[in-house]
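Dear colleague,

Following up on yesterday's call, I've attached the two folding results inline so they're easy to grep. Please treat them as preliminary; we haven't cross-checked anything against experimental data yet. The first protein's sequence and structure tokens come first.
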Amino acid sequence: MFGEFKGTPIGNYLESANYADVQFGMFIDELKKAGLYDNTVLFIFGDHYGMRKEEESLYTFLEKENNIYLNDTQKTLNFTNVLAGIHIPGMKKGVIDKPVSKLDIKPTILSIAGIESENDICLGRSIFSTKDYASTNEYTIITKDMYYDSRKWVYIDTNEDVNMDSLDEETKKKLEEMISNLDIELGISNAYPILYKIDSNSSLSSGNSVNSENVVLEQSN
């Protein structure tokens, strides 16, 4: 089914993704049979780090399928990037083609449901807001064209360092504000102790683990 990738880590990963896709399709069919599909908001997103970053078959597959060569920055972003989709009853199909984060899921769902709370704390923003970049808990920032690797800004397409002196004042100010906001967000999240809970198998698990990536979300009928 997967040709040269069958039996490789990426081939096995694609087989598991195909299985999950079929099962999700069955779930959608049951929602429609029960008359719930047209009155239900569905938000599905992938997990990250399903494969090792060093797995060459991953990049061979990505480069072959897209007929492109990935530089080091693009490899880093593709490794952490996940797809996500939203089904919102009454909304026409479309694509939000900007970096957003898993931190944006909660505020997005609250926005769709029309829920507002002055006492609620959200580190993210609704994906329907004007925010056009995503930040992560690894002290990195992703815009449509640039990537901040916690030390410097890099152009995503060329993998070249951004010469800050060559940027206009407005752009430099915007990038500085992104880093400042990241400091504030991480300061808030790191100020609270991680809560733990014991599951039925008595294994220790984090109760507030949130990860974020650069994702593209699609709304559909």
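Below is the second protein, in the same order (sequence, then structure):
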Amino acid sequence: MNFHDSILKGGAAKEIVKVILEKSGYLVYPYGYECTFSDVRNKLRKSAKNSRTVRRIKSSPDIRVYDDKNNDVFLVEIKMRTSKKPWIKHNQMKSYKEFWNDSILVLVTPQDYCFYAQRICELESKDEYDLSTDFLKFEEIFLRTNPNDIVHFKNEAKKFIERPSKASKIPINS
């Protein structure tokens, strides 16, 4: 998968998660540095110092989710992974734990159930994750989620994620 295919598929995964949450009655807002700091995004990616502030900005979760029934807010990082044993770079997980330990990591994968979630504070930093032991099903974290929506969007996500790419495989940097 080339870089642009990765961005497109990752963006689709984020949109699918947003739609599932909105259909479930949650209010969903953009949060990550891709939207908040869009004017300096490329500069931070290429040449910014690796200061604590830069690491916090670059690792900020993608969306903010408001549960009006329980008057609670969640910060959510969304990742799309195609491997059976999904991975998160050690330096990324270290930043998540340092700055966003109370946030939720959502993995969208064509494997088995497709939508998985876990609180960052519950995850260890390791080379690969086992979806069945390290993560919960999406609706076990987001309790208002309709199981029928999960089934519907699972099929849609798998179609999009599994679509072949013409380019060679390149690791996803997000």
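For the second protein, one point worth flagging: Residues 3-31+61-161 form a domain with the Trna Endonuclease; Chain: A, domain 1 fold (CATH 3.40.1350.10).

Best wishes,
A.L.
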